[in-house]
Automatic annotation (TrEMBL):
Residue span, ABC transmembrane type-1 domain: 76-262
Protein source organism: Cryobacterium sandaracinum
Location of this chain's protein in the cell: Cell membrane
Lineage: superkingdom: Bacteria
UniProtKB keywords: Cell membrane, Membrane, Transmembrane, Transmembrane helix, Transport
Protein name: Amino acid ABC transporter permease
Length: 307
């Protein structure tokens, strides 16, 4: 189906687009090759000492030590533990915030809006430090509380948008069959809004997982602190880039798995949501049957002539 926003590209436009794509790809590939070679080249320090390149074996032999992998594993598990607990609380808070934002009572809706705007405008790191210093909760619960409140506010806004996007007849139908406004919101509107916004919620949980690295500042032994800071201090700065790449690979693996899960859920919910299709073409008309049309027309003509 052709687009109504712009005309289909012609042969020249297609050729220019492919040419620019090839040139851009070659430039990016050349830049990556140059970066890899530059990082692997030996470096000469100010005192004349020659340091091996970042790809030299002497910079990676530390990973033969099993204790290094145990430390990285503990850091990854601590990161997942904080992210899992914070995600559970964030979902609960998101549901409560969304109900407060769409409440018909202004004494609930207005304070909820003020709290949400304040939480969304406050940096997560400052929230962690505030909870740690004021409530003395410890590094783990300071990180969990800050991540739960902040991401709960974002999820609450997503659920509110999902509820508001539903047809008005959904709520009217629930009230018509005798449900209370709260029961209608919880049993009819909320399940549809949650399913519709589920990919966005999972994408926000990916952000939550990455934000666990902020707990490094409050002293929590998550992946960044244990895998980069502690190991670099113990083995020396010559391994800092090696630890950096390994920690980066672990973060990317966890985040890409969650992103893949979000795409899978988006496809499945989209295929079963029963939404309005984008194809607005009318179905082809059924050809007229001459045995039905012609006798009727002939009868009309005879009646008009008085036969």
């Amino acid at each position: 189906m052709t687009s109504v926003l712009y005309d289909a590209p012609g042969p020249k436009a297609i050729f220019r687009s492919r040419l620019f794509s090839v040139v851009a790809g070659l430039v990016i590939a050349a830049g990556l090759v140059w970066l890899i070679l530059a990082l692997g080249a030996p470096k000469t320090s100010a005192n004349g000492a020659v340091q091996p390149g970042l790809w030299d074996v002497s910079r990676w032999d530390v990973f033969a030590d099993r204790e290094v992998w145990r430390t990285l594993g503990r850091g990854a598990l601590n990161t997942l533990r904080m992210a899992g607990v914070a995600a559970a609380f964030a979902l609960v808070l998101g549901v409560l915030f969304s109900f407060g934002r769409v409440s018909d009572t202004k004494w609930i809706r207005i304070p909820t809006t003020v709290v949400l705007e304040f939480v969304r405008g406050m940096p997560v790191l400052l929230m962690m430090l505030f909870i740690l210093l004021v409530f003395s909760t410890g590094s783990f619960w300071a990180g969990v509380a800050a991540l739960s409140v902040y991401n709960g506010a974002i999820i609450g806004e997503a659920l509110r948008a999902g509820i508001k996007s539903l047809p008005r007849g959904q709520r009217e139908a629930g009230l018509a069959i005798g449900l209370t406004p709260v029961a209608t919101r919880f049993r009819i509107e909320f399940p549809q809004a949650f399913r519709q916004m589920l990919p966005i919620i999972i994408a926000q949980l990916v952000v939550l997982l990455k934000d666990t690295s902020l707990a490094f500042v409050v002293g929590y032994e998550e992946l960044l602190r244990s895998g980069l800071y502690n190991l670099t201090n113990f083995f020396g700065s010559r391994y800092s880039f090696s630890f950096f790449l390994v920690v980066l690979a672990i973060y990317l693996t966890m985040n890409l798995l969650l992103s893949w899960l979000a795409r899978v859920i988006a496809r499945r919910t989209g295929s079963k949501s029963g939404g309005v299709t984008t194809d607005t073409k009318a179905p082809p008309e059924k050809p007229l049957d001459p045995e039905v049309v012609y006798p009727a027309a002939l009868g009309n003509q005879m009646g008009a002539r008085g036969l």
